[in-house]
From TrEMBL:
Signal peptide: none annotated. Residues 244-315 form the Mannose-6-phosphate isomerase cupin domain. It comes from the Bacteria. One of its GO terms (molecular function) is mannose-6-phosphate isomerase activity. This is Phosphohexomutase. Residues 8-114 form the Phosphomannose isomerase type I catalytic domain. The active site is at residue 198. The keyword Disulfide bond does not apply. SUPFAM superfamilies: RmlC-like cupins. Its cofactor is Zn(2+).
């Protein structure tokens, strides 16, 4: 069978800090007032994405990779990761502040959880006027300083805050202490991992008066206590790929199109598009797919080129 651009059913996640913007802005189908995340493409165990279009409709991501491993993943990805889809794509709505947290690197995550680590990046789609993100330390710190401030409930004194607006990009290496602030909607690209160490949760409790678990001891070996340059500066150029993040796990470019654009792949691997503004039609062979704000599309590795028609800002992600 000839493979084609593939769409998946979003996996919606209720979170204590979630809201309604994923429904209001992106038309995600939910009546809940606490939807914090839409997992767009995932093969996290028990949360594997299901195809919604074309001949593969109804099959999940792992099933289609098993059927067409080279055609979907590509030789380079297959050689490095086997049949494992290595990335997880999300949209996040933070009605309230997320916990201050950190993610372990590959070695620590493998040892403790038999999982990948969680290198990730954020693209801010929408931000209320006072929205902010917490990313890293203001100055080089230490375990001793960190523990002391954690005990005194003054951890925020050590951490760097950024006021944010639409289009801001942050790259978070494993070990970077961080939190998404209230009033932001974010596209998140990350390694396939659901390992999070929660450091502080704003003394928040649920309907039963219970706080969420903290992972103080586990986090100590995962934290990078030195300062990091996480905010990415870039200039978007109409109808050109502009690379914004490159790391061993993924490369992300911004592609802002306002006219017909012939897209050609860069390497023998799958590509994912996340539409963060506007809408486009993706034409491949005799078929076309409409992709609108808040939607995600997987291009199997065997697809060499597509025609993009419309006016939109796309994140283009490949390995």
């Amino acid at each position: 069978m000839k493979l084609y651009p593939i769409q998946f059913k979003p996996i919606l996640k209720e979170r204590i800090w979630g809201g309604t913007k994923l429904h209001e802005l992106f038309n995600k189908e939910s009546k809940s007032s606490f939807i914090g995340e839409s997992w767009e493409i995932s093969n996290v165990p028990n949360d594997v994405s299901v195809v919604t279009n074309g001949p593969l409709e109804g099959k999940n991501l792992n099933e289609i990779i098993a059927l067409y491993p080279d055609g979907i993943l590509g030789e380079e990805v297959l050689a490095k990761y086997g049949l494992n889809f290595p990335l997880l794509f999300k949209f996040i709505d933070a009605r309230e502040d997320l916990s201050i947290q950190v993610h372990p690197n590959d070695a620590l995550a493998k040892e403790r959880h038999n999982s990948f680590g969680k290198t990730e990046m954020w693209y801010v789609i929408q931000a209320d006027p006072s929205s902010k993100l917490i990313v890293g330390f203001k100055e080089d710190s230490s375990k001793e300083d960190y523990i002391s401030n954690l005990k005194q409930n003054t951890l925020l004194n050590l951490l760097e805050e950024y006021r944010v607006q639409k289009g801001d990009v942050f790259f978070l290496e494993t070990g970077t202490v961080h939190a998404i602030g209230a009033g932001t909607v974010i596209a998140e690209i990350q390694q396939t991992s659901d390992i999070t160490y929660r450091l502080y949760d704003w003394d928040r409790v649920d309907a039963n008066g219970e706080g969420r678990a903290l992972h103080t001891d586990l986090a100590l070996d995962a934290i990078n206590f030195t300062t990091t340059e996480s905010k990415i500066n870039y200039n978007s150029i109409p109808n050109q790929r502009v690379e914004i993040v490159t790391c061993p796990f993924f490369t992300t470019s911004v592609l802002a199109v306002d006219k017909d654009y012939l897209w050609k792949k860069k390497k023998n691997a799958f590509t994912v598009f996340m539409c963060v503004e506007g809408k486009v039609e993706v034409h491949y062979n005799a078929d076309s797919i409409l992709v609108t704000t808040g939607e995600t599309l997987l291009l199997p590795a065997e697809i060499e080129q597509i025609d993009i028609k419309g006016n939109a800002t796309l994140l283009e992600i490949s390995i």
